[in-house]
What we know:
Distance between the termini: 79 Å
Shape: rod-shaped
Oligomer: single chain
Mean pLDDT: 82
Structural class: mainly alpha
Order of helices and strands: HEEH
Helix content: 10-25%
Amino acid sequence: MATVNPPPPVTSGQVTTALGFTPANDTLIVHLAGAENIAGAKTLQANLIHTGANVGLNGNAPTAKAAAIASPTSDTVGTKAAIDAVRVVLSTVGLTA
């Protein structure tokens, strides 16, 4: 009976040539599911939509959305306008109702 030798191991270069591209290292990519920490600044080219219940910003732990901030009933040297502007921004980014 003839001895059958196993084929030599496949190199990463051969895999790249066969695929026509270099496969990604699974430990270096962002996955669609599962918890991951993503380091470094990221620039998004579209709106970020968050569908979860809680948001954490600037290194703070996620917290529940705050209640809406009521508008002041009187204006004291532009305070009402400033607070109203903050209310709109917080609501727009989803941090308050």
